[in-house]
User: Which sequence fits this backbone?
């Protein structure tokens, strides 16, 4: 028996709702059979994006990395709760550095507003505070723009975060916690996400050494340290040098993207991200005054090779052969 028009519309609405619940990737849903041309045209432009309505480009914080922004459906949502995970406690500095990089991008759009960083006494003792004098040099953030609130207990930190998240006086709110506490459940994250949506401001949840648990955050990024590339000078790569800060960013959860991994570098001169390519090296800016960059580092050779002739003078020192183990060499900067 042919399906009535009401039944077709009901089935189509149910399919849309199921797609939202399951979190399917962006797709065009087929129009129900027998629908009118107007209904068919309307359904052809219906896009399901993991349960979210299609948002304008202004609704996202663009990282500047086209592949990452595309994978996230436009970038990190501005009016939402976003999670940034560090799998181990030793990743706390990396997670904080990545959060400060995002904060720099946020303040570029809202330069006159401060950012509130909330944490418990435990997490601040373990991970420390950002270095105030380095904020402006590395991220372009004035120290007075970054406010800290240290709470004795997690319950107090959650209350402060919820109250701050509803305020438009802050450019963003950062909540840093340790582990997977019971109080930070799905209900607590729903409240944070709802307040972020109401205020139109981002809330960043930094979870140090925490496990992935169900939360209301549309996006979860897992951040760890990536090896820094060697710095590039006029004379070529500076051997043994440490270049720009680098992050390995995994998409652990997203309503618009499949899991993926990206290696990003933070440019402290331009205050912007750059994606690491296979043969990329960081570039040292030309100094405004002073001498040219230092030459490549040399090496101190500690032991003479077996059977090698004695040095001509006591000042010559013992020189081992190149075949000796690298453990017998210790780097020393020349000049």
Assistant:
């Amino acid at each position: 028996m042919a399906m009535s028009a009401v039944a077709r519309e009901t089935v189509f609405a149910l399919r849309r709702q199921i797609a939202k619940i399951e979190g399917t990737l962006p797709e065009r849903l087929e129009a129900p059979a027998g629908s009118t041309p107007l209904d068919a045209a309307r359904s052809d432009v219906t896009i399901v994006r993991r349960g979210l309505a299609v948002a304008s480009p202004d609704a996202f914080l663009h990282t500047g990395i086209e592949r990452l922004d595309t994978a996230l459906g436009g970038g990190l949502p501005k009016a939402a709760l976003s999670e940034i995970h560090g799998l181990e406690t030793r990743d706390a500095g990396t997670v904080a550095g990545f959060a400060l990089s995002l904060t720099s991008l946020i303040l570029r759009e809202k330069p006159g507003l401060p950012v509130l960083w909330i944490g418990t006494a435990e997490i601040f003792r373990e991970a420390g505070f950002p270095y105030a004098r380095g904020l402006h040099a590395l991220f372009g953030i004035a120290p007075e723009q970054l406010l800290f609130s240290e709470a004795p207990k997690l319950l107090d930190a959650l209350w402060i975060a919820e109250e701050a998240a509803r305020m438009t006086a802050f450019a963003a709110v950062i909540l840093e916690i340790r582990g997977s506490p019971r109080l930070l459940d799905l209900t607590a994250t729903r409240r944070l996400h709802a307040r972020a949506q109401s205020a139109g401001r981002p809330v960043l949840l930094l979870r140090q050494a925490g496990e992935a648990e169900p939360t209301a955050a549309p996006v979860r990024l897992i951040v760890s340290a990536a090896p820094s590339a060697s710095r590039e000078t006029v004379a070529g790569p500076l051997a043994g040098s440490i270049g720009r800060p680098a992050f390995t960013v995994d998409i652990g959860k997203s309503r618009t993207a499949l899991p993926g991994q990206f290696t990003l570098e933070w440019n402290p001169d331009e205050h912007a991200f750059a994606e690491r390519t296979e043969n990329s090296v960081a570039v040292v800016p030309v100094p405004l005054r002073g001498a040219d960059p230092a030459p490549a580092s040399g090496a101190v050779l500690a032991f003479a090779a077996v059977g090698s002739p004695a040095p001509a003078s006591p000042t010559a020192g013992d020189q081992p052969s190149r075949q000796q183990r690298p453990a017998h060499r210790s780097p020393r900067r020349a000049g």
Remarks:
- The first strand starts at residue 27 and ends at 28.
